[in-house]
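Obj.: predict assembly geometry.
Materials: sequence records (below).
Method: joint structure prediction, all chains together.
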Amino acid sequence: MGPVSTTLLELREVGKTFGDTVALAPTSLAVEEGSFVAIVGPSGCGKSTMFNVVAGLLEPDGGEVVLRGATITATTGHVGYMLQKDLLVPWRTVEDNITMATRLTRRVTDEDRAEARRVARQYGLGEFLRHYPSALSGGMRQRVAFMRTLVTHQELLLLDEPFGALDAQTRLEMQEWLLRVWKDTGRTVLFITHDVDESIFLSDRIVVMSPRPGRVVADLVNPLSRPRGIHTLLEPDFIALKAKVLGLLHGGDA
Amino acid sequence: MRRRVLLNVGVPILSLLLVLGVWQLIVVGFHVASYIAPRPREAITSVTSQWSTLWPLILGTIRETIYGYLIGAVLGFALGVVMAKIPVIQRLVYPVILVSQAVPVIALAPVLVIILGFGIVPKIVIVTWIVFFPVTVNVLDGLGHVDPDLKNLARVYGASRWRTFVQIEVPASTTPLFSGLKIGAIYAVTGAIIGELAASEGNSLALYQEHANSNLNTAAVYGTTMVMTLIGIAWFLLVVGLEVWSTPWQRRSVARRRWRRGVEGPAG
Ligand SMILES: Nc1ncnc2c1ncn2[C@@H]1O[C@H](COP(=O)(O)OP(=O)(O)O)[C@@H](O)[C@H]1O
Ligand SMILES: [Mg+2]
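Observations (raw structure tokens):
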């Protein structure tokens, strides 16, 4: 078969029902180590539910979540996780918010702090280290939230519409920023969005989900080369892929 | 900066002076007899002229207030936490504390004196009784309104319940906690005075006032009342000061430099 690649995450027939609502039909999905996988689907199709299952917040009705060969179903502490809401705590500075995940599991050391400062400086937050979150713009706050996710040292990062609340200009900046950090750190990213452009701009692979009850209707390889930039948005491959994804989402022919 | 200080300190002082002014105007304007209402100056003089007698009594009232307040605040906080964390206890305890607050303290005070004697203990108990309630109710409310997404995030990180409580839930509840503490601070002195009144023996500010009253020394009655009020206000301001000091993020956008490198800041 093809080249050997390591599977980091595997969902095996994972489904979730709330009362009568099938939030997520039994779904299987494999994510390669180091890849950037976008998940697109209409609102309410179970994307966040899938993340909550992977994160261990929800116990699935059935199936298994496997991370690097080990079953982690319904257990927490194995992934990085970030939402549209930045969830920064107002009573801590940027630096202390970045180390928040650590603080929640053990005592924060000088090394932890030094690392927080280093990544913050490296990715454009250096001058805000001692600011409280209330002084930051939405984009900056999301950067801090992402840094907080990053210093957990989890290999798998679940990002649930992290830029959903930002204006278009800021969002594009954030997308380029995220790609830079991703390239530097080599993490594996699962990225939920309902913005088709965003999913194509960022990903190696696009998983398209159907309306409720959510299931995977297509799993597309993204042929666009990296590094990506504004120019990417105008490439024929981009347009073609966009037409395809939109077609899948809206059932039209494209 | 200067403008803010003027606004925050100057204006409240002005409004208090205004009250004294209105008092003066009423007493003078309506020719109120001095055994009904003295002029502000007379009331103040009645205090300053008896200062050496009054000062130990004032200290006594302050001591009762502080002890009762501290116990009430700690107890109130602990009770709020336990009730928030264990729903059965909440259902069990809520009616009891409601009843405890519906009982008129003033009717309860003599009973406490009978049980606990004329010393400081019944006064402390009354202050505690009054102070714990707003603290408990506000802490309960605050802990119940912590963003569930934030608690979920802590869970995803693998946080223990204890660390989530200390690092997330308590700091997220500081505003309601201080609301409770401020309400308690204002009522604490009243509790101490009720306790002093109920104990018809011993030396206390309340009994001093009662004595003045039976001697028709109206100026001293008013003066003592002013002293009691000032103790309450001072205590309230102290709590406000504590709140301001412990919640720098509510006033500034940049944290002050850490005074001890490598040690966590004061918040949380
Ligand atoms: N805790 C819950 N209890 C009941 N229903 C839920 C819960 N979480 C999600 N749902 C329902 O499951 C469906 C999928 O939700 P969600 O995973 O949040 O969708 P998405 O993130 O794709 O917009 C929705 O219909 C939602 O109302
Ligand atoms: Mg969602």
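Conclusions so far: The interface with chain A takes residues 147, 149-150, 152-160, 163-164, 167-168, 171-172, 174, 247, 249, 252-255, 257, 262, 264-265, 267-268 of chain B (CB under 8 Å).
To do: check interface contacts against the pulldown list.
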